[in-house]
Amino acid sequence: MNVGYGFNATLTARPGMGDRLVALLLTGLHEGSPGASEYCVVYLVCRSASDPDVVHVTEGWSSEEDHHRIFAGEAAQAIVAQIDGLLAGESEYTDYVPVRGKAAF
């Protein structure tokens, strides 16, 4: 499946909460969660090498419509509600249309 829409997000956890934020974001890969959806082609959680409370998420979706539909669902909204309590401030988002690349895990 091709990636037709994606985004990067940078989230900064409250001091010392980076581990909890990463663990919560990784639940997005569990069965029934957004990252496990057939429409989610890339779901990558990374930490800053210099600040363990800064977390980056890269997502690639089959289409923007699929992303918005899945993200509006109960499972995604439950994760978002928990994330908000861990953050030190507003997250930064950059959306994009992938051109070409590779992801193999």
From TrEMBL:
Top-level division of the source organism's lineage: Bacteria
Protein name: ABM domain-containing protein
PROSITE patterns in the record: ABM (PS51725)
InterPro entries for this protein: ABM_dom, Dimeric_a/b-barrel
Domain spans labelled ABM: 5-97
